[in-house]
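Weekly modeling sync, notes
Attendees: S.R. (lead), two postdocs, one rotation student

Agenda item 3: backlog of single-chain predictions. S.R. asked that every request posted to the team notebook include the full sequence so nobody has to chase files. The rotation student volunteered to paste the first one in as an example of the format we agreed on. Action items at the bottom.

Example entry:
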Amino acid sequence: MIAAFGLLMAGTLLAAVPVATPGGALTRALDNRDAFTRPAPGLTPRELRDFNFGNRVFNTNWAVAPASVDAFDGLGPVFNRVSCSGCHLRDGRGRPPVDGEDEMLSMLVRLSVPGTDGHGGPKPHPAYGDQLNDRAIPGVPAEGRARIEWRERAGRYPDGERYSLRAPRLVFEDLAFGPLGRRSLSSPRVAPGVPGMGLLEAIPEADLVARADPGDADGDGISGRANRVWNPATGRTELGRFGWKANAATVLAQSAGAAHGDMGLSSRIFPGENCATPQLACAAAVRGDGTDLRDAHLDKLVFYLQVLAVPDRRRVAPETEARGETLFAQVGCTGCHTPVQRTAPDALPRQLAGQSFMPYTDLLLHDMGPGLADGRGDFLADGREWRTAPLWGLGLVPVTNGHSFYLHDGRARSLEEAVLWHGGEAARSQQAFRRLAREDRQALLTFLRSL
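Predicted structure, as returned to the notebook:
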């Protein structure tokens, strides 16, 4: 519901824009380490049971088949983690390895080669598939390991204040099926937070497409466009909404795809094993009966993700946050990070219907410049394009997940660094941010930390 109306100023006064709570009816006042894990208010007893079972599926450590509890066996044969929460700790954001860690605990590496698959998506690497699985069940070789080497880039604001950005370089080791090859494409990705997915799914497609401006007809330098992706759950090409490049259409497709790629779990959406052609031991590994992720379990997992509560904003310094919010609009950030979205009046589950909420995203693809480019296409997304990331919950990442790493590969060690990495269509906004007085830059960052 719309709680109030606010004014956004960009040099001159703009028209009033609606201000909603972050998650509409799914909003909760949460600011502790479990802030991303709670159910939406008002669930019925039956809905709460389904939510709790979905939570169990999300947090269960899957076992190698056959196991004593066959409802949660079928891990692998190759995989990255044994549970959804292994990457999405407390439903939050993953991070790259820190000093003293030699493995990726909550991130992975996407792989492909030039060209497209039969549905227009990335063409999997012939030996390693579409992501590097660094673990495997007994008797099956893991595909290999990736580590990150960081390179610092010094910078300076116009007022003389210095900063430093770091850029990642992937290094592959212990590859079981030969070198990746010069034509291979790779992209490191941290796990995104998951609250609010149901609301994003429930935005009418027409509303999202109406904001696209692929030819930059209005001349504002922003030319967002929709990704169109294959949805294996429906057998159709649909609007992409989820993933760093908007390469999944629905919560169901995203959830089943992650279970298959990250944990090796088959389902009705992905009935086969995640074994690339030359991986003979993977193909020959013992399997359980039927699909690993049962239909009822998958459906409850999807319901859980659809009705996770969205934390409310924290009002620690209201005046500074309000000034920062005005500056956020003034420098042009709202050109992509659309503050308010609305769900369809008939959206399901019922809690999602007719909601006004504030995710700060248009869910469109934008060219973010060469600095953030991974060179890897994904359906209509090219190697410089990324989906506008929702901003809700940004300030709670240090509380819930114990770190402050941002962007798709965790290169940004603070929200300030994340802003400074913006290029391409966001270059004007980044430069405007750099030209702000120091206290105004800090006010804008204070606003982001309140989300």
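Discussion: group reviewed the output briefly. The mean pLDDT is 94.
Action items: rotation student to repeat for the remaining queue; S.R. to check formatting next week.
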